[in-house]
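Kindly inspect the following:
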Amino acid sequence: MEERLQKIISAAGLCSRRAAEALIAQGRVTVNGRTAVLGGRANPECDRIKVDGKSLTRDSDLVYIMLNKPRGYVSTLNDEQGRRTVAELVRDAGARVYPCGRLDLMSEGLLILTNDGEISDRLTHPAHEVKKIYRAEVSGEEIETAVQRLRGEFRLDGRKLRPAEVSVERLERDSAVLRVAIGEGRNRQIRRMCTIAGLKVKRLCRVAEGELKLGNLPAGQWRYLNEAELRYLREL
C-alpha cells in the first residue's frame, strides 16, 4: 500500500518525518531512480527508495523470480472478478512480489516478479528498450502478406508503434508459427496487430525479455533468477 515518503523514511529509522521532508526538498531522495518530490507517495514493499544513493531496503530482502505463467491466470495480485491470479502460483516465494508488466489472461510464458521497484521499472519502461520476444501460433489467409504487414507501421490508441521484428518459424497453407519481438508493451499489442493484419492468434507465449529466457521452465512453475540474470538487470 502506498504511503507518504516522509512516513516511510521515518519508519525505517533514518530520521524524523520533518527531517525526511527536508531531505526530499533537497532532492536527496529517489524512488525507482527518479528524484522524489514533496507530497510524493510510494509502496515500501515494491518501490526502491534511496536516500543519498543508499537504499532503505536491504538487498537481502529483495526477491527476483521468473514464472512460466499458464493461460487462465491474470497478471495481478488481486482480481475483482475472482479469476485466478499469478499470486497463487508464487505464494511460496518467500516475499510479496509484484509482476513486472503483464501478460493477458489467455497469454502464457515468461513473467518476472520482484519486490524491487527500480528493477521493475527498468524492465518495463520503454526508454530502456528491453525487447520482449513472443512465439505466436496464428491462422488466416494470405499469411505471408500478413507477416509483411506485421513488419510495417502500426498505430494503436492513436500512437505510432516502433516496428516489430517478425520471423517465421513454421509456415503452412493457412497457419504459421511466428517469432515476434517488440520493444513496447501496449495493451494486447501483438493480438491487436495480428487482428489488423488479418491473422487469428491461437496461442501466444512470451519466451524472453532481453537476455532473460524462459527455457524449459514448466508451465505454472517459478524459479529464482541466477547471478548472471541479476547482473544483466542491474546493468540495464
In short: The mean pLDDT is 92. Residues 34 and 118 are 9 Å apart (CA to CA).
